[in-house]
Specification:
Blueprint: H1 2-15, E1 45-52, E2 55-61, H2 66-79, E3 83-90, E4 95-102, E5 105-113, E6 119-125
Length: about 130
Amino acid sequence: MRGWVCLLALLVSACVMNTKPAPVPQPQTFVVNARLGLPPYPGSVAIKREKSDGSSEADFETRDDLNTVYVFFNTQLVLKGWTRLTFGFNPAVTRVTAVYSKSGTQLKLNLDQKGKSGKYTLALEF
């Protein structure tokens, strides 16, 4: 009987998981678009970001309204030397579109709010 208890104790100890704490991720500087050096919306929670050839798409969440979010990104682009050529707002689908220009390069901005939720997608296309 004593042999069984020792064998059981040995088997249980072999099943114990590694209890070392997981490494703490290091903070990274997050940008919505690396080509532009465009920062994320202040206080927002990043959900995902995809990029391709300088263009990008970022999903994030904030409690702020569509106009406030757009004004932030417009201001950032203007501060970086971009000039807005066109602007469109469609409240029925909660979407803002704008085209910007700088040194012969055009940039299209689409900012979509998912319904009246606080979830947004910002697409920037060159």
